[in-house]
Fold:
Amino acid sequence: MSRRILVVEDDAETADYILKGLREEGFTVELSADGRDGLYLASSSTFDAVVMDRMLPGMDGLSVIKALRAAGVQTPIIILSALAHLDERVKGLRAGGDDYLTKPFGFAELSARLDGLLRRGAPSQAQTRLTCGDLSLDLLTRRVTRAGRGLDLLPREMKLLEYLLRHAGRVVTRTMLLEEVWDYRFDPHTSLIDTHVSRLRKKIDDGFETPLLHTVRGSGYRLAETP
Structure:
């Protein structure tokens, strides 16, 4: 079965050069010339690898990569960029890129680097949405809805909800929340967690028939459709 490669490149000449070479090597290739469109394709379809230009219209390449990694998309990504300085390469890798190739480049080198990434193994299935009942968090747009109604959450409430959704149905302890949501390695002995959970509960449960955020006495909290 042919390997699928997504090329996100807005320069027509460069794109044609890459597509021609990859197709001659037997790859099935899809092209996007816009960052936002590339984000949509990479998150909604399964590719074996992505070749990502850094400077793109709509949304720059590093922002696309960060959004994909935040959504759990682990498809190998090679960044193409005219920015060759060490600091720029480091930025690309820290954003979530797996390799960084500076322009101008030879196709033989791109092909060799792509082969190296593909040998590492198949990408994980993309997860772009977390749900519990009719409550949903879109990991790409960071939009929260319940029964189709948009909910306005503060950044810390969003992080708290995401953690609860990733552990839906299980009891989450205060220690887990302190370490993973607040990055504390000690208990400040305040009402910090209780206050934030109370605020989040009002936003996701008030006005809805079925409560989702439950307190488990002596243990912590549980996000579930049943108590």
Summary: The chain has eight helices and twelve strands.
